[in-house]
Write a structure and sequence with these properties.
The chain is of the alpha+beta class. The protein has one domain: Ubiquitin-like (UB roll) (Roll), CATH 3.10.20. It is 25% helix and 28% strand. It is built from three helices and five strands; from the N terminus they run βαβααβββ. The chain has a five-stranded mixed β-sheet with strand order 2-1-5-3-4. The model has no long low-confidence stretch (mean pLDDT 86).
Amino acid sequence: MNNTETDPREKIEIKVCWFSVLAEKRGLREETLEFPSGITVENIVDSLTESLPDISKYKSSLRIAINKEYAPENTTLCHGDEVAFITPVSGG
């Protein structure tokens, strides 16, 4: 394994922040979760969809921010990153 590869057996901690309806469904606004090293945003969405099916309902309109900046789903996460799941908010 060279320096650019990651070992999927290694674990990283990611701070996950929930907003709007997802925070209501989850019952909290943030939590720290452990994932395999080398995980991408897309992998986290897929993984969390299993434990939080409400994500799949909003998947097509879900916005994802890493460390307070919007990021594409193919972004690889690092230990200590903060991932925010933001759903559309309606208002009047």
